[in-house]
Amino acid sequence: MKGDTMVRLVKKHRDYRFSFIIGGDMVKTLSTWYRYEELVGLTDFIGLARPGFELDLSDAEHVKLVNMPVWDISSTLIRQKVAEGKSLRYLVPDAVERYIKENRLYE
């Protein structure tokens, strides 16, 4: 059942409608995702702006585009700061920072 997370969630929680939030950089490539057509039927996609990526409606057939303030924070930045022993304050919630430290992620 590897890779069937959305299928499992939809079957288990039939009264819910799930949303999959993606960065604007992923909107253009969404149609190339594994089992994309099935995912479109299982969840709503929400595209958020990211620095350096224009959100284009022609790339977003199955994506609801949401405007929001753009913060230049990425998973790459988070991993880099952890590897350098720097604080993640204001970048992630305190509980997330604790989890990363307790589980020695990205070291």
Radius of gyration: 16 Å
* Oligomeric assembly: single chain
> What coarse outline follows from CA principal-axis ratios?
globular
Number of strands: 3
The biggest beta sheet reads: 3 strands, parallel
Spatial ordering of strands, largest sheet: 1-2-3
Q: In which range does the helix fraction lie?
A: 25-40%
**Beta fraction:** 5-15%
Count helical runs: 5
Mean pLDDT score: 85
Order of helices and strands: HEHHEEHH
End-to-end C-alpha gap: 30 Å
What class, by secondary structure content?
alpha/beta
Unreliable stretches (pLDDT < 50, length at least 5) are: none
Keywords:
107 residues; 3-stranded parallel beta sheet; 3 strands; 35% helix; alpha/beta; 5 helices
Characterise the protein shown here.
The longest helix is centred in the C-terminal third of the chain and has 9 residues, at 75-83. This protein has a 3-stranded parallel beta sheet. The chain is an alpha/beta fold and 107 residues long. It is globular and about 40 Å long. The protein has helices at residues 5-12, 24-27, 36-42, 75-83, 94-102, and strands at residues 18-23, 43-48, 63-66. The protein has 5 helices and 3 strands.
